[in-house]
Design a protein that fits this description.
Blueprint lengths: L1 E5 L9 E9 L7 E8 L4 E5 L6 H8 L5 E8 L6 E4 L11 H11 L4 H14 L15 H15 L3 E5 L7 H17 L2 E5 L3 H7 L2 E6 L2 E6 L1 H8 L7 H8 L1
Parallel strand pairs: 1-5, 4-8, 4-9, 6-7, 7-8
Antiparallel strand pairs: 2-3, 2-5, 9-10
Helix pairs in contact: 2-3, 2-4, 7-8
Length: about 240
């Protein structure tokens, strides 16, 4: 594997920078090629593309989870800290919701006073206070997804890497998530969000990276994506998606 992961000493103008020449499960079988993207402080970048286009591979490469990679990933920001919210919730079978939050806080050195105040507030915002001492294995998919989001928001990272966050969330939970996301962007955090919910992405993302067949086919603001797709000036993101894929 030929992969560099840098967290430099100086605060940078980006919170995530990836220059991936190629990546895959085997050295001679690249799934993605020439993926170059950057997320700045306070910027929400939408990673979009059809199923099998390479979005998940891109996210896994950024996370350092792919076995064969040629390229470089840099985490910037003040603390060089990232939080990952997977599409499929991951949890410990014999830990309660509260124990999951306490574990995450302890790993990142959050004090007990800071932890309890913020954790209680997040549980209240996502309406999970009554399930505080319950086991996530008994939760619905939406409730499990809320747990993943609460852990991420608890950590206050420099960059959020979020994979299909709307799956399983009801409209109220989606609204709560977007409200918290906006406050984190205002704080200076960046977000790379992989999603199929294009109408929402069009409303909330400052820029987009559209991947098809393992490579970037359009990148930039919605106006830039429209030009790349040869679409009208008022075309929806979904129209550009269809034109490019």
């Amino acid at each position: 594997m030929n992969q560099e992961w840098s967290v430099g000493e100086k605060e940078t103008s980006y919170v995530l920078k990836a220059a991936i020449q190629k990546a895959g499960y085997e050295a001679d079988k690249a799934i993605i090629r020439d993926i170059n993207l950057q997320v700045g402080p306070g910027e929400l970048v939408g990673l979009i593309g059809p199923n099998g286009a390479g979005k998940s591979t891109t996210v896994k490469t950024i996370m350092g989870l792919m076995p064969s990679v040629t390229g470089k990933v840099e985490i910037g920001g003040r603390h060089k800290r990232y939080a990952y919210v997977p599409e499929q919730p991951v949890y410990y079978e014999y830990f309660t919701l509260w124990e999951h939050l306490r574990l995450a806080a302890s790993v990142f050195g959050i004090t007990e006073a800071q932890f309890e105040a913020k954790a209680d507030r997040l549980l209240q915002q996502f309406r999970l206070t009554e399930q505080k001492h319950h086991y996530p294995m008994s939760f619905s998919k939406g409730m499990q997804q809320k747990l993943m989001l609460i852990i991420a928001f608890l950590l206050e990272p420099d960059i959020y890497i979020v994979d299909e966050p709307f799956v399983g969330l009801d409209p109220r939970a989606t609204s709560d998530f977007l409200t918290l996301l906006q406050s984190e962007l205002a704080r200076g955090a960046g977000v790379l969000m992989s999603t199929h919910v294009l109408d929402t992405a069009e409303k909330i993302c400052q820029s987009f990276v559209l991947i098809n067949q393992g490579s970037i086919v359009a990148q930039g603001t919605l106006d830039q994506v429209r030009r790349d797709a040869g679409c009208a000036e008022d075309a929806a993101l979904s129209d550009c998606f269809l034109a490019l894929t």
